[in-house]
Amino acid sequence: MWKTNPAKLSSFFVFLSLWILGFTRLMGLAQNNTTSIPVNVGVVLELETGFGKISLSSINMALSDFYASHADYKTRLVLHSRDSNGGVVDAASAALDLMKNVRVQAILGPETTMQANFIIELGDKAHVPTITFTASSPSLTSFHSSYFIRATQNDSSQVAAISAITQAFRWREAVLIYVDNEYGQGIVPYLTDALLAGNTRVAYRSVVSSLATDVEIEAELYKLMTMQTRVFIVHMLPSLGSRVFTKAKEVGMMGEGYVWIMTTSMTNLLSSINASVMESMQGLLGVQPYLPRTTELEEFQVRWKRKFQQDNPTVFDAELNVFGLRAYDATTALALAAEIAVNSTNSLIFKNLNASANSSTDLESIGISQNGPVLLQALLSTRFKGISGEFQLVNGELHSSAFEIVNINGNGARGVGFWTPERGLVRNLNSSNSTTHSAPNSSILAPIIWPGDSTSSPKGLQMPTNEKKLKIGVPTKSGFTEFVQVTNDSNSKKVDGYCKAIFDAVMEALPYAVSYEFIPYAQPNGKEATYDDLVYQVYLRTFDAVVGDTTIRENRSKYVDFTLPYTESGVSMIVPITDNQNYNAWVFLEPLTWDLWVTSACFFVFIGFVVWVLEHRINEDFRGSPAHQAGTSFWFSFSTMVFAHRERVVSNLTRFVVVVWCFVVLILTQSFTASLASLLTVQRLQPTVTDVEQLIKHGENVGYQEGSFVYELLKGLGFNESKLILYGSVDECHDLFTKGTSKGGIKAAFDEVPYVRLLLAKYCNKYTMTEPTFKTAGFGFVFPRNSPLVPDVSRAILTVTEGDKIKGIENAWLVKQSSCQDSSTSVSSSRLSLNSFKGLFLIAGLASVAALILFAAMFVYEHRHVLKHSESRPSIWSRILDLLKIFNQKDLSSHTFKKSEFNDRSGQGRVDTSPKTHSPPSPSNYDHSFTFFGEQGTPSPDRGDTGPNVQQAQEMAIIIEHANPDQKQPRTPDRTHENN
Length: 980
What we know:
Elements: H1 6-35, E1 37-45, H2 50-69, E2 75-83, H3 88-102, E3 106-108, H4 113-126, E4 130-132, E5 148-150, H5 159-168, E6 173-179, H6 182-186, H7 188-197, E7 201-208, H8 214-225, E8 231-235, H9 238-251, E9 259-262, H10 264-267, H11 275-280, E10 285-289, H12 295-311, H13 322-345, E11 350-351, E12 368-369, H14 372-381, E13 383-386, E14 389-394, E15 397-398, E16 403-409, E17 412-420, E18 424-426, E19 470-475, E20 485-489, E21 492-496, H15 498-509, E22 516-521, H16 531-539, E23 545-546, E24 560-562, E25 571-579, H17 594-615, H18 626-639, H19 652-681, E26 685-687, H20 692-697, E27 702-705, H21 710-717, E28 724-727, H22 730-739, E29 748-752, H23 753-762, E30 767-774, E31 782-784, H24 789-801, H25 805-813, H26 838-862, H27 876-888, H28 895-908, H29 947-963
Helix pairs in contact: 2-12, 2-13, 3-4, 5-7, 8-9, 13-14, 15-24, 15-25, 17-18, 17-19, 17-26, 19-26
């Protein structure tokens, strides 16, 4: 009996189900195909090359995948391929055939920029969109064709990324190497502008023909080796670029110190470069569009590899590149747009044109696609996520996204960073720590292995060893040889001096070696040349640089470039100095200025007044006749200068004021003593002239250095030309000062600060540098305009001048003859001004005013009943007068008078009724006369009465008297009253 295996039976049913499902779907597709609308699309590629086969394979896979997932679409793209054979004419003929005979609705391709130029014109005439996924030259945008679609990134979109790299490494020069055709030339203006915006100058443009031989390429590379620039940016296709890099390796331009940067033209096709060429490209940097590493992309690459091997069994090691991915996405976009266009028109119409009888070509017989405008608008509005990333057309071009920076190592490229339009250079594209538009810095990128297996960043500039030495011009001069000294040494000229020593030190500080020689320069007749003439020789390329005491001037900078200054700047006036020892009888007044004298005197008077107010009622030392009180008060204030006052103070407010005032007086007297001692004992060196206007007004002669720009400066200040005397050395200047104006000498000299320092170093006790100082930029080295050495030399100058080496050079050349401790000491006033003591006087004034206010408040509050309105004192003025009368009397309630009374009673045992004993007057005989500084009879206790009771009795008498002004009171004889 036949038995059935359950496992086999199950497998059979599964297989049968899948077969039935597949057959059903196939029948459905066949049914759909019978009703679908074909859309003819032309493909113009170089079909026999590996690149063309890769692109065509991607196009076919795009259609297969698209309609497998969109089986319900009623349109189907039908491809009509034509071989361009790599030629412009063949590509144009193929496109013409497709438009005229096949009547295609769109064309995919062509590959190159040159082929696209003519096809774009044909598409524009026939309203047939031309979709290229490889032609990236910016020159194509100049056609302004509305039917041209670039489904790839424009080459101009990468120039900002390349410029950011040069900025990050601070390369100031670069050489462009590009192919001599429209594709190579299209990027040059954009790349040049981007580099200049990043402070990188294009030093040279190396144009290589696409048909150049190896000998011609080698000759061009040797020419580049003789230049200083070591940064090369290459823009050409791999067919030519591979030869260039191979030859560069052979001639030694792939060693340490060189920088090579590839554009996307080669980086996108690295997979097509063989291993031998990759060996010559080690250490190069490249820029390529960033492709997100998605699962869909990886799966597609596997499927594409399998499909390509099946269709092209004779092609080995083919690798999918970015252009194959662009072709896939462009085809998908065209399929989507075709469905939209057909749905809106429901037909595909190609209108024929009647060619004229005299037409000798078929161009006029090309029809016009009626669906072209609709298809074009559908393409421009299409947006989806493709295999190569986001597909979005902006102004007819694929939207520019991020670029990846790669470093060639081994057999492939290693990513070291990214660049985006929004964030600039970043190491990690998804990092949130990167600053938007941050300043490019080499540390942003991952470590790079440069040519020659070097890990240190190249400088980008190097003096070639086979180049002739730099010719350095130096001035020939007889004076101020400390700066530049030219002497005869056998059969040659020997150059020495401060400027030469600085230049040698700067050259040693450069990160590369520079070969140079000094050439003395003079006029043909042997006379000394002017500095303007010497600088102009650099502009004429007679010299490569000028080293000397050359001042940085605006008019000179129009022709040359200066480095940063390496000396002090400015023009100052030099005048003789004299020792002012002829003091007069009033020399003791000189330490203080007049305003400080007046302020001090006023404060002495003010402090005396404050002390009198605070002590008058409670201190016997400040009572008596008006003259006695005034003298005592002022004597007390002035005696604080020597702290010899013998009057005691009893009020706490007075003590507070005196303590503050003694502190002020102490500082003031000590400062006066120190200033006067310095005035009488220290040598007083004063300039003979302190004002330029005095020199001009009195017609004095002034000196200037021969050949210096100071001559024009002095004329601008108003000096007469006949009063300007030139000198050529330090000794000549000294001799002119010795003669004086009357004997043809000078009264003052004007020169730059370095020369002034030299004069003061030799004659430190005879001359001084005074104001005014006119601003200049100092001495600098001269180079031709846009010289790449200027930035590096300027940085090296900072290294030298900020280090210890500059001291040794200055000691060797500028101060070796100096016997002065400080020849730069400027003359200044030693008088003490009010500004130095404003704070002290403010403190003393505030303390005194505060004490007065507090005393007045306490006094008024204690006698507030006097100010109250009454019938005897109706007016406020009378009440104030009564209050002043009380102020003029002794305050018998004070502890000082209580102590005196207690001493009197304990010593005598009774009240003394002799004329010397004070007794209070009765209210009836109170004297209403009032003298502010005088003292009326001061009552004293009698018969056991205390001071306060007597005081209250007196006040009551005043009130009663004012209440009864017409009533005469009996006057009791006062035998004990007397004036104090």
